[in-house]
Amino acid sequence: MGQAVRFHETGGPEVLRCEEAIAGGPGPGQARVRHVAVGLNFADTYFRTGIYPVPLPSGIGVEASGVVEAVGEGVTNVAPGDRVTYTGFLDTLGAYCTERIVLAAPLIRLPEGISHETAAAMTMRGLTAAYLMRRIWPLKAGDSILLHAAAGGVGLIVSQWAKLLGLTVIGAVSTEAKGEIARAHGADHILIYGRGDVARRVRDLTGGAGVSVAYDGVGKDTFAGSLGSLKRRGLLVCLGAASGPVPPLDVALLGAKGSVFVTRPALADYIADPEEKRALAGELFDHVAAGRIRVEINQRYRLEDAAQAHRDLESRKTTGSSIFVV
């Protein structure tokens, strides 16, 4: 008998239950995948709390890696025995489980140089880093960026990728220890939250100019500082809202801040095209397999410990990537 983590009501981590589950057989366009590792992402908490509403009861998690056991009619992108990874949104929701039926379209074949654990730790974070570095803004060598949550899973990959592109990385973190982790992965300068005004410190580090791009996954607590850190015609990328949603924005402020831009991107819109997804995944896998980007798995949990995993994530106790080992 398999296991699956579900929630029957929205709320805190305590609503997560590990239950018995049977995967069954795949239908047309589907595959049955036996999981080896499952990714833990902050977005998972948005489903659990109801920020992302879904019909209840519901599974949780959108990222995992494993082996294809069977495929349904019409499936040509994967075959039984293939090592695969996947990430998505509603189309892959329910990844916290030992095995499952999932749409075959999101599945990505894993190259031999990438382990299942590494894949589960980086597919969502790595593809996010890929579009942030390669699609969202015309970054060029010598540009400076501000990176919030620089010691997190996305942050560590972005920092390393940024250095490959010749960028200067200003990383913002909550503790000295996290600052050391971020610095070891490419951050050139470290800002500790609560120690001075972020925008002023960024201006000091950039000779008054500001950064070309600010990547902000913290939200409410850091939005104003990120906006004030941009150079003229720079870009603020709102990746998430770990501290709460950003306040309503008066667009006239964008002109007052130097004709700056603000975007709230979603990974799904950067991997919707199969060719673009294949290109981003290929570049990511090449960097990881060659050792140019290291994926740090600093927390491992069992499925039955899902509630504790969410507590650790929301209290900022985690660094790098976290996974469930199935």
TrEMBL record:
InterPro entries: ADH-like_C (IPR013149), ADH-like_N (IPR013154), ER (IPR020843), GroES-like_sf (IPR011032), NAD(P)-bd_dom_sf (IPR036291), QOR-like (IPR047618), Quin_OxRdtase/zeta-crystal_CS (IPR002364). Pfam families: ADH_N, ADH_zinc_N. Transmembrane segments: none annotated. Keywords: NADP, Oxidoreductase. Residues 11-324 form the Enoyl reductase (ER) domain. It comes from Sorangium atrum. PROSITE patterns: QOR_ZETA_CRYSTAL. This is Quinone oxidoreductase.
